[in-house]
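Exercise 3.2. Students should predict the tertiary structure of the chain below and write it as structure tokens, then compare their answer with the key that follows.

Predict this chain's 3D structure.
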Amino acid sequence: MGAEGREHVLLMGLEVTDEAAYASYRARMTPILSSYGGAFGHDFVVARVLKGDARINRVFTLVFPDRATRERFFADAQYRAVRAELFEPAVAAALVLGELEAASGDAGAANGVRP
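Answer key:
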């Protein structure tokens, strides 16, 4: 992965309004994501928001080898086309909840603590 065994992790919150279109988006964009060495880490469907933006109904992490790779992925023309076709009509809000550099393999683990 990234420098010195680090990964770049992006924590996202979405308001998904069309589950079928969003599932199609994920199916079509995942191979593009994989071609950049990226992957989904944790992925949650949210039943109830206790604090923060109450519209969020999906939370997940995206893991990249480094920040530069993340930026190249989001700028990729093929990804942008899939996003415009499927993501934009299916998602009413997209929020970056956080980003961090984590030790490889620890993406999503809080301070390296494992259950």
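Discussion points: Confidence is low (pLDDT under 50) at residues 108-115. The chain has one domain: 3-99.
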